[in-house]
Amino acid sequence: MNGFTLRAGKRAGIAAGLTSLLVPAALVLGAAPAQAASCNVTTGPYQKQVEKFLGRTVDGRQSLGDCQAIQAFQRKHGITPTVGYAGPLTWRTMNTMIQQKAAGTNPNKDRKCPTNRGRIACVDLTRQLSWIQDGSRLKYGPVPVRTGKDGTETRTGLKKIYWRNINHWSTLYNVSMPYSQFFDGGQAFHSTTKSMWNPPGSGGCVNMRSADAKAYWNLLRNGDDVYVYGRKPGT
């Protein structure tokens, strides 16, 4: 074997070594790509309720199909861990949706929000609902809202809108708060891009979908009443 052959063989060996360093191990070994989060096939404490809500066969036994349907719901609303388990938080979210739907077009049926103050924005923390009424006449809503989480609850009681800023920027949270209407210290109605059912909740503000926050902006003014009552589930 001559010197040229030895040098060529040495270069080839070095190149092969570099290749093994640069190419991901998964490609070298033919490994499969990482899979999506696996499903929890354990039957949850709210299995039947969750199955019924999702339109699944109600047998109280977790199946792969049940798990995948629960997982899709959890992903949509930012419920973690997103493993498809029919646990308390998932059912609490679904139950809130059921109560919101049941409110229909008469959210103040129990007259808990004052009807003797003219135009007023009502916020029911228990059902995570808000609407605007004039006396007993419904003007807008009801719409789902996302209120303060445990520790930063939206404060209850009769308030008044005192400051409005259509393009407000929160220096506290470093986020945009479009259509902000402040009614209690730093607490305000404003729009957010998060799901209204995304736990655990806001920093105290009443989060709204963009279209609803815009409608509130157009209907309300400084000095208008806001009444907050009830208790958010989980707080």
From TrEMBL:
Pfam families: YkuD (PF03734). Keywords: Cell shape, Cell wall biogenesis/degradation, Peptidoglycan synthesis, Signal, Transferase. The active site is at H190, C205. This is Murein L,D-transpeptidase. The keyword Transferase applies. The keyword Secreted does not apply. GO terms for molecular function: peptidoglycan L,D-transpeptidase activity; transferase activity. InterPro entries: LD-transpeptidase, LD_TPept_cat_dom, PGBD-like_sf, PGBDSf, Transpep_catalytic_dom.
